[in-house]
Amino acid sequence: MKAFQIGKQHSNNTLSATTRPEPVAGPGEAIIAPRLVSLISRDIQVLTGTYGPLQDPKRVPGTEGVGDVIAIGEGVTEVSVGDRVVCGHFANWLDGPFSTNIFNHDIGITHDGWLAEQVLLPAAALIRLPDNISDEDAAVMASAGLTAWHALTGKTKVKAGDTVLCLGTGGVSLAALNVAKMHGARVAITSSSDEKLAVARKLGADITIDYKTHPDWAAELMKQTNNHGADIILETGGQDTLGHSINAAAANGQIVVIGVAPGSNSPIPNYTMFILKNIVIKGIANGSRAMFVDYINALATNDRKALIAKTFDFDQAPQAYQYFAQAKHIGKVLIKF
User: Fold this and answer.
1) Which portions of the sequence form the region Disordered (predicted)?
2) pTM, whole model, 2 decimals?
């Protein structure tokens, strides 16, 4: 079968085409034929060698996607051949609280991912999709979407009237915009692009801030919220933006740290503000299968669609990665089989 592998991991163009034997489903396993794969920021970080330790150069990447079950192993009852399914990228985290053991099976990192004509996955981790969720919406849910859902419904319990601040217009931020609006919250979003901010407003953002025009974007947020600040902040910018996020937080605000974006300011800035504002800062890692089911059910009953920037053919996967790495787009980048 056709596949792609990550190669030597020194730039965003190390992805290379390869062929692999077709997988065989063992007990408790299923084979999926992907329809669409969605790129996320860590896919680029893997290629450039900046996401944790270097991986096996033969690793097949791809964190999130949607596909059809084409074979099942002995004892599988969770899915059947022909089911259209998704899978969270921590395949062992089915339910319950976070544990570091979830990192033992991370799709596209410790195990081969979606960027192949067939992918072998644990059947217990798979989720059947309702018919009214499109392939495009399904393909983008497992990483950015589930992370945003976990951040806003699991950790912070977003509610109507809250002000949610999303940094930038990446996948997590746009997914969080959707989830927050589902719950009646007000959403603020930052970007250095007026074009991206205009799109964010069309998607429902209530406050948009250009951080080139307003380098002290925390002060601008306080101004636009009558000095209230953000009740919930999704901190996707890394260490270099944490100080601004603390300044932008409301009293009793909650900051959810997401991702491993690098930064140069390792010491925690504005330390006294933790006490003065009674802020909670919490790191999260994606989410469990149970959370994913709740997220899918919410999407199935809400008319909020994913924003798609561009779709590439499977053979154009290297071009898709390079397009994504330029970070000039807004919305998700897909690879179609």
Assistant:
1) 1-22
2) 0.92
